[in-house]
Design goal:
heterodimer, A: 508 residues, mainly alpha, two-stranded antiparallel sheet, 74% helix, globular, B: 328 residues, alpha/beta, D-Maltodextrin-Binding Protein, domain 2, five-stranded mixed beta sheet, 11 helices, 10 strands, 42% helix, 17% strand
Amino acid sequence: MDSLTNLVDGFGVILTPANLLYVLLGVMIGTVIGVLPGLGPTATIALLLPFTYSMEPTSAIVMLAGVYYGSMYGGTITSVLLRIPGEAASAVTAIDGYEMTKAGRAGPALAISAVGSFIGGTVAIIGLILIAPSLAGFAVRFGPPEYVTLTVLGIVMVTYLGTKSTLKSVIAAAIGLLLAVVGTDPIAGTTRFTLGLPGLFSGIDLVAVAMGLFGVSEILYVLERSGQSHGKIGEVGRLTFSREDWKASRGPITRGSLLGFPIGVLPGGGGVLSSIASYGIEKRRSKHPEEFGKGAIEGVAGPETANNASSISAFIPLLTLGLPSNAVLALILGALMAQNITPGPQLITAHPELFWGVIASMLIGNLILLMLNWPMVGFFVQLLRVRIGIIGGIAMLITLVGVYTLNNSTFDMWVMLIMGVLGYFMRKFGFEPAPLVLAFVLGAILEESFRQSMLLSDGSMAIFATRPISAVLSVFVLLFIASSIWGAVRKDKKHSIIDQAKELAGED
Amino acid sequence: MTKSRVLAAFAAGASLLVVTACGDSGGASSSDEFPSDDVNMIISYAAGGPTDVGGRAIAAFMEKDLGTTFVVENKEGASGSVGTADVVRSEPDGYTIGMTTASAAGRVPLIEDVGYDLEDVQAIGVGTFGPGLIVVPSDSGYSTIDHLIEAAKATPGGIKVGTAGASSPQHVELIRMADEYDVEFTPVPFQGEAPAVTALLGDNVDACFCSNAQTTMAQVDAGEFAVLATGAPNRLGWAPDVPTLAESGFESLIYGNSYFILVAPAEVPDDVLATLEGSLEKALQDPATIEVIGEVRLLDEFMGAEELQAMMVDEQETLGPILTELLG
């Protein structure tokens, strides 16, 4: 059991006062921002990035990961009590969760969410331990042609799975691809589209782009709405669930764990899709589907389990292939690169302390979250009284200092501010920044790998079909495109999970 | 690496103020008492990279040796030219020096308009050395450089060689090999050495012309990779059996290497230069410093200001035409 020894070493890395503190800090921040509506995990991690430069790489990633899965717990609280999802992945929980609150059953809803999240998270961590190392060993064989097909698949899925309009996702992704070509041509070595600015010679900085699109635009957007106040906060009541509640939730929690895990691995997957998929499945499987929407505990337990499982498994593609599966992971990629660690198949062998440390931290972090969430829900609810507008100015200042310290360059500050304004207008007009950032990251890899493939094959496109892995992936890409066209032609998409997601996101 | 870059930035800012203040009062301008103030060392590449590790180790020694504080700041970007430009533009009093690469000082200005040229740079000496290494998997069937060359002659362009980037010294040498000797490999550039090594491990390329970065050396030490040749002008002290390209029939291919060098602005006074050069030479003999840098990353003999400057001028003259054609 190699993995077990390594995991023990991982605990050795994490069970130091400093690293434990970072786990605690991460999951606390995650819970808090999960509770606060508007401020999601992506924006928070964007704002936290500069603080990680001075940390050990493991501490940095442990904290950021904690923010991510912690937010999955926190988001539940406002969904259930206020019908306001603290972050998008908890949107479906709001449907039945709030109905339960109205019926005086907020306590069981929150308690089953916490338990489901813990189980989903733990199952996913075990999956990560079992799958990631062998996948990484396998991934060494991945050459440029495989990366081409993987990134194409990623970009296609990210645009299609975006929670808003597919057309707008395609436009955002196209902008991301265009931004990715600025800088040094990866094969010729010459610079292009730099406008003669030395700051652009090595391309637009990912962290500056992400901090602008997620962090700054969020601050601007929240400031604009800071006058609005929340409705009445529901009574929490006793935080326990009955034997009947548990019997009803057992199945959804099991299925949520098994469903959330693979969805998290998919490009563009992650929290939102997994919780909606779980809700859809539970409703379909239920003997009493009419109760869904009227306070069915299954509609809370399943999605909350699934979103937590997916937020853990989303780390697999990044840690084994260096490919981020969603915007949060793109930011964590940025954090690693700022530490001079380029994730890829070699990460687990080159930085075992990082990989196993992060896994150990997830086990500990999930336990902390379970203990934290259960007794402290009342405290977190009080956070809703904080006016976000007040911290906006401070957050802006921190962001500016942070992006400056990235390269000690004022140039990146301008990049971030421009991206912030772009992100603000994108949100106003219903565009998501996530496809842009992911296409920006994946586009650079796609171009480089495609041109490397052409060098390897002496210019023959057959290389994508003759190598088994890239051939299989190419077929997936074609199937995916074909099925989305087919779906659009039939116009009969009402029942697809993705479209339910889009409707829900539209309501918000 | 683990040092707080935020703090470093503040410290650099603060000490800049101090230096300026002293300069105004005439305190630090007198070179006969150099150094009488903090020295700023600008590292032109990211924290944690080879330039940074070497630079910080050397700074730590020189700090003790010269009895003053070295404020180290990373200023990366644009192939090292951002930080190098900052050094070149600073007051030539020896209180601002830079750790950069021979490539950033001499090659990049040929390709890009970076606001300085080699003439604006005064070399102090070589800190660490990254010789180009041609490596193949140990079980590849290529046991000598001659085998590999024969294979390339038999199928021109058929042998794919990974490099750490299109403008890396090794990549340029492969292009020169095709131009000048009609031996044609297909160089495949990656973003840095680690992905190139991964590609070789996965048999996606046939060989790599890399350097002695940690990722490469780990595979060499583990016996996974065999080193067939080096791009260094002379055989390497730590690998005496590995032939140079120059002695394998490619006399002019001696530039496929990275030199991590200490530089100052061109007008720096001679005595200040001598002080810095002397301290650098001592640093590279200091066991503690060698321990940090690693013996495989040291030149067998110290290369000081004069020799290094001459080498860079020579390199510029030889490579100028091909670099402008390829990358300009």
